[in-house]
Specification:
About 25% of the residues lie in helices and about 35% in strands. The chain is built from four helices and eight strands, in the order βββαββββαβαα. A four-stranded antiparallel β-sheet has the order 1-2-3-4. It has a four-stranded mixed β-sheet with strand order 5-6-8-7.
């Protein structure tokens, strides 16, 4: 899924007038934990978007997700942009600004709370968000790196004693 985050127009003054060039910041993802971004440049907007999409597709990286959210809270910076990502319970939705939302939607995150602090420069916000996603690690990965195993704990059954207050609530 390709999303155009920001389009910039730059001009160069030449003998016959102004020459315009365009750059498009494009984020692409498969909504299953892979996401990439790129800056495509061309003399036409459509060409800049197309080139940005092709470059982003080649630069896709996997990110760790836990169901429809992220495994833990993370804070990341890039330049003046600061990003805070917090996992959220199912049904919360994607609470994020335009730039952060593009990256998270492309990665496949559905429930998350975010706050963008500092600079609103689209390129730096995208880079900070991607850095935050890349710094996420699942519990299994951490345990494996430490040479440990995860033990599944079975819930114990609580015996119900006949005549106790827990078994039958009193009626007035």
């Amino acid at each position: 899924m390709e999303k155009v985050v920001f389009i910039n127009r730059s001009s160069k003054v030449v003998k016959g007038g102004r020459r315009f060039n365009f750059s498009a910041l494009v984020v692409i993802g498969d909504k299953r934990g892979r996401v990439g971004y790129a800056l495509g440049k061309a003399s036409e907007v459509a060409d800049a978007i197309r080139r940005g999409g092709e470059l982003a597709r080649n630069q896709m990286v996997p990110v760790s997700l836990k169901d429809a959210t992220i495994p833990h809270e993370v804070y990341s910076t890039y330049g003046g942009a600061k990003i805070l990502l917090r996992p959220a319970s199912p049904g919360t939705g994607l609470i994020a600004g335009k730039t952060v939302r593009a990256v998270l939607e492309s990665a496949g995150v559905k429930d998350i709370l975010t706050k963008s602090l500092g600079s609103s420069n689209a390129a730096n916000v995208v880079k900070a968000t991607l850095n935050a996603l890349l710094s996420l690690r699942l519990r299994e990965e951490i345990y494996k790196g430490r040479g440990m195993t995860i033990h599944k704990v079975k819930p114990t059954e609580v015996p119900v004693v006949p005549g106790s207050a827990v078994a039958a609530p009193a009626t007035a």
